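We modelled the chain as a single entity of 256 amino acids. Its sequence is:
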Amino acid sequence: MFDLSGKKFLVTGSGSSNGIGFASAKALQALGATVYLTSLSERVLKRGLEINAPASCANLTKPLAVKQLILGVIQTLGSLDGVVNNAGMTSVLDTSEGEFASIDDTTIEKWQKSFARNVESAFLVTKEAIPHIRKSKAGRIVMMSSVSGPLLAIRNDVAYPSTKAALVGLVRSLAIDEAQNGITVNAVAPGWVASESQSESEAIHSKATPIGRAGTPDEMAAAVAWLCTNEASYITGQMLVLDGGNSLPEQRYLPN
């Protein structure tokens, strides 16, 4: 049960030592899979060394860069059974951008950059990888969505939730088209997560969840890895919510 021996996966956005991408790579590896790591930052090369996995840098918003990435993955691994599209969110390496803003303060440039980072990157990687994944006959594609957008919203934040909702639409469309090829396509939707990119405000809000804390990257990664197993072969086109119950209560007042 839960054996991925012989399977090969690409995990994007896996450069952070305390992020969901790297945790997902380790979870897949723990089940016997071979993983290939990629991220915009060169720190992904260090992550690869830490778990003895091939890794390379790539700007996933550039079609040519993605094409070269997938070519390198196939040359290195020989084949590909699945992709974890984790790349996205606001880059912790670029704090000058200010992605989160109301519609009044969201320029078309900010809007387009957010979609490029969070949606187009997943589209480009999947488009290049899927011809190889089809050969697996039991392929897996997992998108990293969020409760923000598909289920919930944050004040003065229009671009990021819109991109994460768009990812769920992509998941459902791909799930229908690729079922005949033995590929399942699903989304994981984290709530508050205590990762490197979590802000002080997010950490405070996480305490108001029914469980009373933020989730961990490892908890998110466990769901990702499970969706990649044979045991999850009848699940496709779905969004798995991992938010500590935060999307459940209507009453938000916390009693003393």
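As a brief sanity check on the tokenised model: Strands lie at 8-12, 34-39, 55-57, 82-85, 140-144, 184-190, 239-242. The first helix runs from residue 20 to 30.
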